[in-house]
Specification:
about 70 residues; mainly alpha; 2 helices; transferase activity; transferase; transmembrane helix
């Protein structure tokens, strides 16, 4: 069984070239409803907590209009 030659002067393989030139999918300009923030900026976790509480309250209040509940 022969091993692959390790020629250092050979060009990069296709997979290595694609990974090297890949862009971050979060920074694609064609994605709708995505805010492009500065590099390294993260959203506070409290926004996610508040969104969960708000959506939960909205669901509970809407379900209170469903007849047959306790």
């Amino acid at each position: 069984m022969a091993t692959a030659p390790t020629n250092q002067t050979a060009p990069q393989t296709g997979a290595q070239a694609v990974i090297a030139s890949a862009i971050d999918p979060a920074r694609r300009p064609d994605v709708l409803l995505r805010v492009r923030r500065a590099e390294g900026h993260e959203v506070s976790a409290w926004w996610m907590v508040g969104a969960f509480v708000g959506v939960s309250a909205a669901v509970v209040s809407l379900l209170s209009w469903v007849p047959g509940g306790a």
